[in-house]
Structure formats: structure tokens, C-alpha cells
């Protein structure tokens, strides 16, 4: 970011030098005041390959944010044409482009030239299937190099990639791919998780008849080697890519800036998952900005993020190729029983510079007493990124002690909605424990109250964005009039993006996310965020995980709610009155009397999505006797049974 800032100062922009304490705030203010200049600079600084002539417009609208389908909407880079895969594959040579691990250790790797050649082979196979611009190609795949290759081959042709992880059940896959109607499906014959190999072929036999749009299905062998028996009508990966043949020329089809690149899916907790269509240019520019400026990712550095192919962090991770980084992929359980610290061994062995994970992983690592820097050489790690849920202040402390004092801890937050971040870290501002450093450049992030007015620092409210930005979804799938798009982000304020996070801005200019605003609690009419409770509860060594809901008080005429806290305790710990008393006292002193749970219960397991997020909404539905929506989004739906019909909650 320092180099970018210095380059902008040379153009006459009113910016201080990078070592000025006000440098980031000034750069952010300039990015909002002159958005066309800023995003044009991101294009040039990132070395984007594409057709954009000097003097071509960057933005055609006003400063008012609006849904793409509305009359008030403008367009970013309306004359530009580019190709996503071309920009990710621009770096050539013998240097490794991707390194893959699973629970058993190193899996495979590809140089930049080898990755280019593999993409060329698979792109040729897609052309033989008749795939062209706008067609959908789906991956029901693990996080392995073959998935990356298939995505890049799809993007090279101007087609649209959509994916989910192999642990999805058939109904969950059909809920997603059934909407987008892919013409080609890639799937693996098996995947590994938790020390076990899980077969996918039986589910594939059930799935394919339910996806009539699929003209060709390609089966990829587990762990990338050996023969795989292809079911009738299914093509083997090696046959599809014509293994052994010289790679054909790879041509990149350049498309308009807002041409569809990805269809991602909402978690589906409120009905069928929404298909969010993300554009080629907006995704590329936003990720270049975040990688190069906010993460300070440099060519030849190694980038890792623990993710599955059903979470937007996979899409965020793979864009690191455009910055010249080497990707480190991992597929499997983050803490397998045979080697709970395998991710840190991988970080040491592969000299990872930027290590990305979830807040839950860091909290559990501390609970388990991990001290990775004592067992592994983590000298290359300069940043630990965390997302998925709010990162507690104690986790900042743990990273400094257990990973290294030189490491920047950067909590980041955004979502599938924008396939990127609203608030995240940066290399110029100080890090304050428990806080996200600041807003994304070019992102006009504010905190509003229920009346749509900006609140004072320290006061919680809705996280919103008040100016257009390129990474807004270009559309929702099957939403021709934009009604669902408007309902999702532009209600109740037509000219404000309401993101659905409950947050506050700190006196340092940072942010604290309190949780999803639809999961906030309202006991006695006082609206509070769940993260305030989690921060207190998870400080207890006896507690491995916690989940809190606001349950409507049975029989209460005023529809008041009571706070109910569920705890997953260590195996040898019992939920005694003494422990409950200590927890309530800690919440009272660390948060407020309004946060104190009326009921505390120990649970055997807590439902979580496949990206590791604990599902407050699904638990609340189960407790209140409603059918949990889209159980297929959960990694452990069987855990919901415990919460249904509990006599303690009647």
C-alpha cells in the first residue's frame, strides 16, 4: 500500500506520505471523494490485462448507490473488456503457482507454466462440450488443484463458474445447481475429512438425473492419482483433459467488465439459497485491491486460507494468483485427530507468508493449548487473517504469543454478497486488539440507527455502505426485475446498502462486528449483539464453544425474549451452578446486565454451516418449534435434534 500511496502523491492527490499516522484515513477519504480516479489507479497499479483506452470512462453514474437494475444505477468501466483467467495466469515460469495439502500432508503442486497448460487442456475439453460465454460450469469438488484448473478454464471461455464442497448432500446441491442449470459438472469420486475417506459416487448417481441441464459430467480421482472407475455416461478426468497430449493453445475470451464470472450462494437459512452473480471486472479489481493494498501481498509470497469450495473465501484466495502469489490449498479437517496442528506444520514447511483461517479456529487452538511457534518455524508468517465470525480480543493476544509478536492479526469482514470485504486490515494503521483496523478503500462504510441516521462512534447499529463500488453483485440469479436484490440490500433505505451486520465504529477508526443483525437479541426491548456475550463466555477454559439465542418467552403477551446460552464444554467438565454463576458474573461485568442469559444449558454439539459458522438462526428455529430452513447448508444437521422440544425451554 505504501508504494501505491507514493505513486498517487505524484499525481497531485492531497495525500500524506505512508509513514504519516493519518496516511490510511487520507487515502480512504480520497478513494471516496474521487472514486473514478481511485478505481482507475487500482486497474493500472494491478497491471490489469484488458482493453481500456486512455480517456475511457471509469464510472457513469452519480455518487448514489443503487441496485444494478434500477434507473439510478451507473456502470463501472462501461467500455472495458477483459478476461479473469488471463489476469490470473499472466505470470509464467517455473515458480510454483499452487501447492496442495490434505490431512496426510503434501498432495501435489503445479508451476505457473504447468498450471497454464492444464487450464488449456481443460478449456479445450469444455469447448468440445460446446461451452461458450455465459454457460454455467459447476464444481462439486474438494479444494484441490483440479478445481482451480476447472474454474480457470471456465473463465478463460467467458463462461460462469459455480461450486460447492463435496460434503453437500444431494438436496443441497440441487437447491443450488438446479437454479443455475450448469451444462458441465466436475465432481470427485471421494474426498477425505476427519481421517476418513467419504465416497461421492453413490450421491453422484442420485444427483445427475436431478440436473437435466448437465450435458457432460467429469469424475476426478481422489487425491489426484490412479485410475478411477467412471459410472455410465461419466467422463474420466484424464480422458477429458486428454492426458499425455501436448496442451493446445489457450485463447482468452475478453468480456465486458460486468459480465458474469461466478454464481455464489447465500447460506439458505431463509429459504432456497439465493444465487449471487458476481462480475468479472468487479471481482478482479476488488480482490487486487484487497490483496495488494490491504494484505500487502507481493509477488512470490505464499498465500493460504482455510476454506472449502462452497465458501466465498475460496474465490478470494484463488485471486491471489493475479498478484503474483503462490497459492497454498488445504483440503480436510482443520484439526484432524491424528495431527491437530497440521495447518501450522504446513505453514512452516511451505513458508506461508499470509495465513488465513476462521475466528473459531483461532479460539479453539487457544483452548486446546496450541503453541505452534514452539513446534514449527513460523518465521515466514507475517500476517494471520481471520473471518467467519467476530474475532475476540483474546485471540489477538494468542496470535502474538503463540504464532509470533511480528505477526499482524487482521480480522476481516464482508461476505458472499460482495465476494470480498467491507472492513479489514491494512499495513499503515495500528492494530488494536479486538478491532478490525478500518474500512476497505473505496467502500463508504457507515453505522446507521433504525431511522437511517449515522450514529456516534461506540454506538452499535446497522453496517451500511452509502456509495457505489465495483464488487456489488451484478444481479441475483432468476431475478429479472431485481425485486429480490432490492429486498436483500436496499430496504428500508432505497439509496443505502444495508449489509445485515450489527456493528460499531471505534474511536480509533476501526470496527467491531457484533454479529448478524437478524440474530441480535432484544431482551426487554434493549437490542444487543451476540458477540458481546461470546467474548465473555469463551474466556472460560471450561468452554470449547458457545452459542446464544433470543428465545421468545413462552406465553408472554408482549413477545419479549429471554437470552439462552448453550455451551459445548470440555469432556471432563460438568455445568455446575458454580460455573453458571461465574459465567453470569463475567457477562454482567464485561458486557451489561441485559446480556446475562436467563437459561444456560450444556449441549453435545452445535450446528454449524459447512464454512464453520455456528448457526444461531437454525438453533432458534429448532428451539421455537419451527422447521429449520435449508438444513442442507449445515455440516452437522443431526446436531439440531437436541434443541427440539427441550423441556428446559418450554
Give the arrangement of secondary structure elements.
Layout: H1 2-9, H2 23-33, H3 35-45, E1 50-51, E2 81-82, H4 84-88, E3 96-102, E4 105-111, H5 112-128, E5 136-140, H6 145-156, E6 160-164, H7 170-180, E7 184-188, E8 190-193, E9 196-199, H8 201-207, E10 216-220, E11 234-236, H9 237-240, E12 255-256, E13 260-265, E14 275-279, H10 280-294, E15 302-305, H11 312-318, E16 326-331, H12 342-349, E17 354-358, H13 359-367, H14 372-375, E18 383-387, H15 393-403, E19 408-411, E20 413-415, E21 420-424, E22 438-439, E23 445-448, E24 461-465, E25 475-476, H16 483-489, E26 497-505, E27 511-516, H17 530-537, E28 543-552, E29 561-569, H18 577-590, E30 599-602, H19 616-623
Parallel strand pairs: 3-16, 5-6, 5-7, 7-10, 10-11, 15-16, 15-17, 17-18, 18-19, 29-30
Antiparallel strand pairs: 1-2, 2-12, 3-4, 8-9, 13-14, 14-25, 20-21, 21-22, 23-24, 24-26, 26-27, 28-29
Helix pairs in contact: 2-3, 5-6, 7-8, 13-15, 17-18
Task: Give a description of the structure.
With 650 residues, the protein is of the alpha/beta class. Among the domains are: 2-63, no CATH class; 81-98 and 107-288, ANL, N-terminal domain (Rossmann fold, 3-Layer(aba) Sandwich), CATH 3.40.50; 520-649, ANL, C-terminal domain (GMP Synthetase, Chain A, domain 3). Helices cover 27% and strands 22% of the residues. Strands 4-3-16-15-17-18-19 form a seven-stranded mixed beta sheet, with helices on both faces. A hairpin with a 5-residue loop joins strand 26 (497-505) and strand 27 (511-516).
Based on the coordinates given, report the CATH architecture of the domain at 81-98 and 107-288: 3-Layer(aba) Sandwich
Spans of at least 5 consecutive residues whose pLDDT stays below 50 are none
Query: Which strand order do you get reading across the main beta sheet?
Result: 4-3-16-15-17-18-19
Distance between the termini: 55 Å
Q: Which value, in Å, is the CA radius of gyration?
A: 24 Å
Mean pLDDT over the full residue set? 92
Q: How is the CATH topology of the domain at 81-98 and 107-288 named? A: Rossmann fold
What count of helical segments does DSSP give?
19
Tell me, what's the shape? globular
The H-level CATH homologous superfamily of the domain at 81-98 and 107-288, spelled out, is ANL, N-terminal domain
Q: Roughly what percent helix? A: 25-40%
Number of strands: 30
Q: Report the portion of residues in β strands.
A: 15-25%
